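User: I need a structural model of Inorganic polyphosphate kinase from Streptomyces phaeoluteigriseus for a docking pre-check later this week. Nothing fancy, just the predicted structure tokens so I can convert them on my end. Input:
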Amino acid sequence: MSLAPRAVLVHRTTEYEELVARHGTHGQAAFFLSSRGRDIEEIAERHRRTRRALAEVTAAIPLTWRQTRVERRDLDRFLFAPEDVVVVVGQDGLVANVAKYLAGQPVVGIDTDPGRNPGVLVRHRPADAGALLAATAGVEELTMVEAVADDTQRLVALNEIYLGAAGHQTARYRLGLDGDGGVAEAQASSGVLVGTGTGATGWIRSVWQERGGGLRLPGPTEERLLWYVREAWPSPATGTARVAGELSAAGRLTLTVESERLIAFGDGIESDAVELTWGQRVTVGVCGERLRLVG
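Assistant: Understood. Predicted structure tokens for Inorganic polyphosphate kinase:
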């Protein structure tokens, strides 16, 4: 007998909740902000909109379904099940935060603050939740990026993966590509960024613009990645011949560490990084899994 679907509502602590937790009371938080020329009411209103959205989405979940909530900081300890339907209530970045923990479960993105969020991934309003949950078959499969180290550590991201030194200082490594005959270039740089079509609205786009847009940005569902070396430094021992390119579905970029410690992290979450030490190799490419985004 199959289990009824479970709606998993993913949300994050609001700015207002963080302020009150830090300062103890609403009044103390308001005083703190006013001393810096800010009004707490703006932040409190965004908090109220988020809570109303959560309540509206919760009420739209079919009565025969199970349901639960998970806060962003608890995602790495939450066990998603195959029958889950994930409802992200918040910002675009929250969809990216949850993506790497999923294995094909459909995701519904609900925007709690239209006009403030770009709405690239949280495309729907709370009032749409009922209809979306009733018909989750129409999904868009978004390409993801993965990094796999030679010690089996694995990192998956929806937008981009950064490889470099903690604190974004100088990273030393050898960079190679599939089909280059094993030739790798020694480099010293601020790190390497590998991004997807979904990430083409964020960090990878800013680097793409700085480089003059010579490469075509991939689409969110396209099995193609762009990669850039940030601020490569030319010296007698390090080169700058390979600083940008694209990876097809089967293509892989290989980085061999020549620093005491480098890290790889995805979607801007440096606290959840893969650590790499001298001599380790990590390969980066298109991930076999996709994010299945509803609507």
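Before docking, keep this in mind: The first strand starts at residue 6 and ends at 11.
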